[in-house]
Design brief:
By secondary structure, the chain is an alpha+beta fold. The protein folds into three domains: 2-76, Alpha-Beta Plaits (2-Layer Sandwich), CATH 3.30.70.2700; 88-163 and 176-272 and 476-525, FAD/NAD(P)-binding domain; 282-471, no CATH class. The chain contains twelve helices and 25 strands. Strands 15-16-19-14-22-20-21 form a seven-stranded mixed sheet. A five-stranded parallel sheet has the order 8-7-6-12-24, with helices on one face. A four-stranded antiparallel sheet has the order 2-3-1-4, covered by helices on one side. α2 packs parallel to α5 and α2 packs parallel to α12 (507-522). The longest helix has 17 residues, at 198-214. The two termini are 28 Å apart. Residues 282-474 form the FAD-dependent protein C-terminal domain. It holds the Pfam family FAD-depend_C. This is FAD-dependent dehydrogenase.
């Protein structure tokens, strides 16, 4: 008999295992009757700083059946039953453009169904990409095709590797299982805010690629899709540029999954010029805010901050400007992490955040961004993308290289330039600038309002806190329109997926979208 037990609450000051077994005894489960036990979820309740608790949900295999009706916390465990599916076009080649989570998981699903995924990636495989990215930090010489945005694993490879998502999908468990099989930590399956870390994610991505290859997939790195060939509103071929050799060739193919990520501006323009329907979408722009990690830990945990069971603290901040119906919020919070240069275009510079698996760095950072839409940047296609480009080029011109502007948060609130150098996790050039004069007013005034609203919290807003920017690429600036099975509404055989197509926001939702669209468009149920 397999049962779930939920809402087991244990103080962080108590022996966790001992207290869990006590709670099981209260609910009719003796230690002797347990065949095996696994965590389904672990979350934290830190609302009362003097009484922080962990909350567990467990799945238990019992040797002998018990009466569940006696205990309100117990329920019969549900077995996840996935639909059996089969290929619509056996042993057929399908191209996948991009190796972020959407691209990799769509390629994996294709291979599992018996297809031959032909994967094109403009950047390098992950080990070479890592060397190139490190060299960029040291030399300021940018490779526009292999950087923090482009290359094996996509932009998520240089992030915190966060796996939390708001979507509900039967595919989430599969994604977790694949990550764990490829080297991720088992606790991602049950941690309330699961993350892998950029160091571990690089290993996972490489192992996922090898698994796809073992199932028949083929990978072509440093291979930029420069153009597509369309005839009678159907895709017929890809025009490929081998970045290293500068050789060009045509790859005939009539089924292509585009998982290009949110920074492939050249590809957006190419697809639009060939009749691929798309529209502007809302996104957000702002800055990174950086604190000492110990201050964020203290803010969230109070006097319990030194408890060894507590990880580097996370937070969520939000401010709603009701007059403008506009939100300002934290995004991609990286506890114990670093602020990094996320440039992918020559002469343009921006920032992002990432963490390693231990989250043990001196600083914690998060984006603080303001929601924007066509009412702000205009309704011409790519207007939002052009705003991103304008701000990134402006930053490069101000700093004079691939660096970032900075300002102490108190100085920002007082509209004055910071006159001292700051200590930061950011490894490239920092240039003091009054950020009030950098963004359009609708962004600046909402940042001001949000910081004023949060200023009652003197650990979050203080003279020790700094802003570094700009953060411009929170999500795709356009949506590539598709039908219910994931096919472009204007070009047959073209399937836009993931964050770059406007259908995901993060590693998990992008991976899920990749699997889902393959199932919808390339398979059928087996009854």
């Amino acid at each position: 008999m397999k049962v779930n037990i939920s809402n087991i609450i244990v103080s962080i000051n108590k022996n966790q295992e001992k207290e869990i077994y006590k709670e099981l005894e209260k609910n009719g489960i003796s230690r002797e009757n347990i065949e095996n036990l696994k965590y389904l979820k672990k979350s934290i309740d830190s609302r009362k700083k003097n009484d922080i608790k962990f909350i567990y949900t467990l799945e238990i295999n019992l040797k002998k059946n018990i009466n569940l009706e006696k205990y309100s916390k117990l329920s019969l465990a549900k077995e996840d039953i996935y639909e059996k599916r089969m290929s619509l076009y056996p042993k057929r080649e399908v191209a996948v453009v991009g190796t972020g989570p959407a691209g990799l998981f769509s390629a994996l699903r294709l291979a599992e169904l018996g297809y031959i995924p032909i994967v094109f990636e403009r950047g390098e495989e992950v080990d070479k990409r890592n060397v190139t990215t490190d060299n960029f930090i040291k030399s300021n010489i940018l490779n526009p095709n292999s950087n923090i945005q482009f290359g094996e694993g996509g932009a998520g490879t240089y992030s915190d590797g966060k796996l939390n998502t708001r979507i509900k999908s039967e595919y989430i468990e599969k994604v977790f299982k694949e990550f764990i099989e490829c080297g991720a930590q088992e606790e991602i399956f049950w941690n309330y805010k699961p993350h892998i870390g950029t160091d571990v994610l690089r290993v996972v991505v490489k192992n996922l690629r090898e698994k796809i290859k073992s199932l028949g997939g083929k990978f072509y790195f440093n291979s930029l899709v420069e153009d597509i060939e369309v005839k009678n509103n159907e895709i017929k071929a890809l025009k490929i540029l081998e970045v290293d050799s500068q050789k060009r060739y045509t790859y005939d193919i009539d089924k292509v999954i585009f998982a290009i990520g949110h920074s492939s501006r050249d590809t957006y323009k190419t697809l639009y010029s060939k009749g691929v329907a798309m529209e502007n979408k809302p996104f957000a722009i702002g800055v990174r805010i950086e604190h000492l990690r110990k201050d964020i830990d203290k803010m969230q945990y109070g006097e319990a901050v030194s408890n060894p069971l507590l990880e580097a603290a996370t937070y969520n901040m939000a401010f709603n400007n009701k007059k403008e119906t506009r939100g300002t919020f934290s995004f991609c919070m990286c506890p114990g992490g670093e602020i990094v240069n996320a440039s992918s275009e020559l002469g343009a510079s921006l920032v992002n955040g990432m963490s390693y698996s231990t989250r043990s760095g001196k600083f914690s950072n998060s984006a603080i961004v303001v929601g924007i839409s066509e009412k702000d940047y205009g309704d011409q296609i790519f207007s939002g993308m052009y705003l991103q480009e304008k701000l990134e080029k402006k930053n490069y011109e101000i700093v004079g290289t691939y660096g970032a502007i900075y300002q102490n948060v108190i100085d920002f609130m007082k509209h004055k330039k910071t006159t001292f150098e700051i200590e930061s996790s950011y490894k490239m050039k920092l240039f003091s600038y009054d950020i009030n004069n950098f963004f359009p007013n609708y962004i600046t005034r909402n940042l001001q309002s949000a910081f004023e609203n949060w200023s009652k919290n003197n650990l979050f807003i203080s003279e020790k806190v700094n802003l570094i920017g700009p953060e411009t690429r929170t999500s795709a600036p356009v949506k590539i329109l598709r039908d219910l099975k994931g096919e472009s509404i204007s070009i047959k055989g073209l399937f836009p997926i993931g964050e770059g197509a406007g259908y995901a926001g993060g590693i998990m939702s992008a991976a899920v979208d990749g699997i889902k669209i393959v199932d919808l468009a390339f398979s059928k149920k087996i009854f």
